[in-house]
Amino acid sequence: ETESEDPLQPGAMFGRYAIVRRIGKGGMGAVYEATHVDLQKRVALKTLHPESARDATIRARFLQEGKAASRLRHPHVVDVSDFGVQGGNAYLVMEYLEGEGLDALLERDGALEVERIAEILLPICSAVSAAHREGIVHRDLKPENVFLARNALGQTLPKVLDFGISKLDDPASGFARTGSS
Question: 140, 162, 169, 170: which is the annotated catalytic residue?
Answer without folding.
Answer: 140
